[in-house]
Write a structure and sequence with these properties.
alpha/beta; Rossmann fold; DNA polymerase, domain 1; 7-stranded mixed β-sheet; 11 helices; 11 strands
Length: 289
Amino acid sequence: MIPELSNPSVCMRDPQRVEEILQSMVKAGSNTVQVIADFDMTLTRFAFKGKRCPTCHNILDNSNLISNECREELKVLLDTYYPIEIDSARSIAEKLPLMVEWWTKAHKILVQQKIRKDLLATAVRDSDAMLREGYQLLFDHLQEHSIPLLIFSAGIGDILEEVIRQAGVFHSNVKVFSNYMDFDESGLLKAFKGELIHIYNKREGALLNTGHFQELRTRPNVLLLGDSLGDLTMADGVQDMENILKIGFLNDKVEERKKSYLDSYDIVLVQDETLEVPNAIMLHLTGNK
């Protein structure tokens, strides 16, 4: 067993099953593996020194690219819809239309701000966004071993890419599915492109991008990283899946959500701001003990 799986932040409902999946994946070889990850609060930190870290949307909310009035409107939306998102008493079917409503309203408000494309990098640089500790090893090692990393995010793709670019880890093996901004010829935000990706329709997003998964059909072994129950469907586009090891970051509301996370994820990391466990698993899978 990997020593890091004894870390105090690690909870597993069935350690034996985790061991079996890992053995099976090691046997198949790292050239059959792909990593599918959420971004906000999965690859990025939830908090640092007691202070919440921003998501892709928050980076914009906190920047000077939007007016105070816009910021207030977005805050009202957050206070209205975030409690619904994390309410374990509501079913996903119940939450779904409300999440679409939230994202759609937020995007509409942002479009009215005529955000300048050339200022996004500065907004990211000035923000408190941070990738989790150990990110360099994760991204670099996956690149070194030519293991694809698919990032699936309900956030804003342009900002997400900028975060990993500024961290120096936007390697060629990284592919991002997210909500992208559409700018007019003078570089002002005029709309968001394509279908809306929100927290509970990542499965549809995965299936819409079957071309991508088609290319990866020689990689039927998946390491999935997420922080919400909506992230569990991110691998539904993978064809002829052999093994999937699901690692879930349980960042807050631990007591009320722990049971549902343990029922859904193979490994649950409780208030762990590092990538130590995913890194240990990745090193194990690539034979770097």
